[in-house]
Design goal:
By secondary structure, this protein is an alpha+beta fold. It contains two helices and eight strands.
């Protein structure tokens, strides 16, 4: 791990403050990150469930955190693909947590996966895979 939890937390607060709307960093390790989203009315869709875009944003930021923890603070590492499968309905007004793991990190791209869990449910509510483009000069 190149970046500490505290360094990444400070980086996100300074350079990506809007990201707090999508979740907060809870843990960081060698190629993994954990994020938590406190679900409120802003994150719900009609029918009383967590919206797909809220879960997608949480998954995306979780992979970004896991990647930066491994390669360093590279602001221009960007999502080039995100695929998500919604597996079951999350518990409304209950926090959701994402655990991202990097599967492969190359010179110009990286692949990660994320499982999202809703507090109160044992099984995951979503699974995502993401590809990040890494700028050539790190």
């Amino acid at each position: 791990m190149i970046v500490t939890f505290e360094e990444l937390q400070a980086f996100l607060a300074e350079h990506f403050p809007q990201g707090a709307r999508y979740g907060t960093l809870q843990g960081l390790g060698d190629g993994w990150a954990e994020m938590k989203l406190e679900v409120d009315d802003e994150h719900l869709r009609p029918g009383g469930t967590v919206s797909g875009p809220a879960m997608m944003a949480l998954a995306d930021v979780a992979v970004y955190a896991a990647l930066l923890g491994k390669i360093g603070l590279v602001p221009l590492a960007v999502t080039s693909n995100l695929n998500i499968n919604f597996l079951r309905k999350p518990v409304a007004h209950s926090p959701i947590r994402a655990k991202a793991n990097m599967l492969r990190i190359g010179r110009t791209s990286a692949v990660g996966e994320v499982y999202i869990h809703s507090e109160g449910l044992e099984e995951p509510v979503a699974h995502a895979t993401s590809i990040y483009a890494i700028p050539a000069a790190r």
